[in-house]
Amino acid sequence: MIEIPPTVQDAAAALRAGALTSVDLTRAVLARADEFDARLGTYLARFDGEALATAERSDAELRGGLDRGPLHGIPVGVKDILAASEGPTTAQSLILDPDWGAAKDAPIVKRLRAAGAVITGKVTTMEFAIGMPDRTKPFPMPRNPWNLETWPGGSSSGTGNGIAAGMFLAGIGTDTGGSIRIPAAFCGVSGLMPTFGRVPKSGCTPLGYSLDHVGPLAHSAWDCAAMLQVLAGYDPSDPDCIDVPVPDYVSALTGSLAGLRIGVERAHHFPQDSDPAARERFDAAVAVLEELGAMVVDVQLPYFAETNTAMMLTMAAEALAYHRQDMRSRWNDYAAGTRQWVAMGALVSGADYVQAQRVRRAAQGDLQRLFHGVDAIVMPTAVCGALTYAELEDAGMSKLMGRMFTSYWDAVGNPALVVPMGFTADELPLSLQIAGRPFDEATILRVGDAFQRTTDWHLRTPPLVRQTVAV
Amino acid sequence: MPEIPLTVQDAAAALRAGELTSVDLTQAMLDRADELDSQLGTYLARFDRQALANAERADAELRDGLDRGPFHGIPVGVKDILAASEGPTTAQSLILDPDWGAGKDAPIVKRLRRAGAVITGKTSTMEFACGVPDPTKPFPIPRNPWDLDTWPGGSSSGTGSGIAAGLFLAGIGTDTGGSIRIPAAFCGVSGLMPTFGRVPKSGCTPLGYSLDHVGPLARSAWDCAGMLQVLAGYDPSDPDCIDVPVPDYLSGLSGSLAGLRVGVERAHHFPEERDPLVEGCFDAALEVLKQLGARLVDVVLPLYDEVQAALMPTCAAESLAYHMSDAQARWGDYFEGTRAMLARGALVSGADYVQAQRLRRVAQRQLVGLLDTVDVVVMPTSAVGAFRYGQDDLLDIERLFKLVFTSYWDAVGNPALVVPMGFTGEGLPLSLQIAGRAFDEAALLNVGHAYQQATEWHLQTPPLTRSTRAPVGSAAS
Amino acid sequence: MSTPEDKTIVQLMLARAGLPVSELELDKLTSAYSQQQPGIESLYKVAATRYEAPCLQFTPTPTFADWG
Fold first, then answer.
1. Hey, are the CB atoms on C43 and B347 less than 8 Å from each other?
2. What's the complex ipTM?
3. Dihedral through CA B160, CA B163, CA B165, CA B168, nearest 10?
4. Domains of chain B: which residue ranges?
5. C60 to chain A: which residues are within 8 Å by CB?
6. C18 to chain A, closest Cα gap in Å
7. Catalytic residue, candidates A79, A122, A137, A201
8. Is A124 helix (H, G, I), strand (E, B) or coil?
9. pLDDT, block means (10 residues), chain B with 477 residues
10. Which CATH code of 3.60.20.10, 3.90.1300.10, 3.50.50.60, 3.20.20.80 fits the domain covering B8-466?
11. Which domain does C37 fall in, by range?
12. What pTM does this model have?
């Protein structure tokens, strides 16, 4: 069994250098799944047979001189709220009609296939991307490979822990309030929420129509850039998809931050109960960016609390519109966590919803002005490591809510990248978040990539995986 | 000495023929206002002095060969929810901050001025375009010149009554559930609700962000076309304004309907409570269209009831969001009718609002399919003539929308034109509505114009005004 | 017809919105709410909305320009 390369970038080079084949790679990641999936609850459906067939085809194509780009022959996992033709989508729920999307590919899945990616299966999420894992429901509980007692984050849980455990080299997540970036942060990998409308979200069950984003997780910013290259671009099947040219994201990774102005947002990101390591690692990360040539300046995000409130009530209202009929007739078939969140849509008035949209626009206006003075804004993704299931069940999401900082960016629609920046004293990953202007993913990817050229947090492997594999 | 022209088209010709001047015309309109406004409650603010000054300038420009187009020197009224720099906007309310829009022109007012229009004043509306007249509030009660005991319709009430009674030749209204078309219908004039986003609505107090349209009222479809030419086009100050080329609406008035497929919608437009004459008037109108070359096809509007059900939650939620802090602090200062609408915004959940927007999209999709099979859809604008004060409960919005058929088009965003088509037994105007594809106002205007070449309903004037219809420049004017 | 439950709901929703309605207004609004609900229900029953997006679109790149 070959060693799995640490990144898509490395794997792509190794494939072309003949050091390994896509079949080798795919067999290796499937073996990882055999080893770890039961403990980690990564997969809802494995596509071993199809994956190996695609891997063989990739090898043949590469041998024959057809090169589909960096994702050619690379194993990729897909969050089980997006349709892939190998099998039905569940949304990790008893509710979703199995005929929904049956035998169809979501547009982004089509794009992955056209890029030669090897889709290894459908991975765990939260129910409909919102409901915390419910032991009473017949779905796996996803666990964090850094500490099995802890939650890997969500809702792209399986995408995050699958990459961390080497079950695939990259994956697809979605982000409505943080669901790409939280699992990326807690699992010690990188993740990108692109600009709203950058990547088509058709063929994906919706959570918040005006908040949903489809995007990549992978070990590195470079890998995310390569993924975004495949995913981005207009598709008319998604009414929210915006027709804006797609730049060359990988070429923009110059490694230099000279002249870049980076805003540092501490004001809203270090509450009382922050883990001390979070502040320490964040300061260290900012220092690295400065060393790389960036000019840093303190900034404050406008309407921080109000925008977060607007995000929540928007999501609740939009989600309930979608779920209401099923919730009425099949309330108990839903996970408790889903019911909790989505029912809030009934407690928000139409006027409140409209007002939330006005607040979002006001925030966008001030933020546009802020981005006249800076090119990117950095902050911690969260000021804690992954919480244990016990802690989550005890205090619920509220314990987490005040310490994670993703939802602001969903509300305004700007892109945000997260990259690992160190560990807590308990050896749980900490994460740096880099937000940018709409449609300027290139700049934030450049920041993340430059950071990762001089640090190696993104290359660390969970002890569990390291030890098991070493044997 | 010529009579005061009824239409902008005629007035424009008379101006250029030297038969009268803009000052003559404007003075005659002001005299009419002196005579009739106290009965009609058309104006909230008159700009007599500025109007005459503008009229003088218009005359000078025309004499010098600077011709700004058909609206040059034409007296026009502006609904008092839009800002015009002559004076503050009230929205017919105690609530609106007088500093709002003070000294500024809404983009469409700028466009009117650039076209040389003479703005005679701000016309009465409903409070914030939604509150029915409230006698306990210090604003005029607008009355219908066809019968002073009836409502001229709303919310562009004064714009409608002013044109019907000849206080100006054209005017600006807005339409969220029918507020251009209802007063046009009840006052026996023409009115156009353009496609959503065709005309900028900045500088206008909002009622429903996703439903508001600014548009013209005038005597004729030709006049409305000329007005739309002035008003239409992108403006970045309105986030809902859509950047689509503006065709030449007047050139598009061929007057021929040969080959036009006209969908006839009876299914939802003839309730039990209808006026006994409305069906006959409608059938007669259809006959005229047929004579003009149109091919009639029976159609049914998709999801009609559901679209109606989606409009109120949308409008109420959007307006309450705008008014929330004033509503909480100054509830009693609002008109009773406005309060009734705003409160509904609290009774609709966020999820219901979102669902209403999904429904609208489904209806739009199905309507696009329908408008592949026909070019326009026709129906009566209303099943009845103007509502009677004291007898018909103006607060009963549900009843209003059962008898008046305007709101469907606001909900889907398509354009709709209304033109007079006859009278009830009591002498109250009846109206024909013509709706079409998004951004295809040209088709509607052509139908209306062709119809008006073959009929004279749009040239009828209220008995009340005939005694004042003295020639321009005579001793009596 | 309005039920006592309808009146409670309306009372609570208006109170939550902070709107100080009179008794008469409360009665009228309760009646309006009861009449409104079947229409709202009908919006959810339209099969074609099952997987449909709403017609208000959010943009990540809004434009801002002053009028006047």
1. no
2. 0.93
3. 130
4. 8-466
5. 195-197, 242, 364, 412-414, 438-439
6. 12
7. A79
8. coil
9. 86 97 98 97 98 98 98 98 97 96 97 98 97 94 97 97 98 98 98 97 96 98 98 96 97 96 98 97 98 98 96 96 94 95 94 96 95 98 95 80 96 97 98 97 98 98 77 47
10. 3.90.1300.10
11. 4-49
12. 0.94
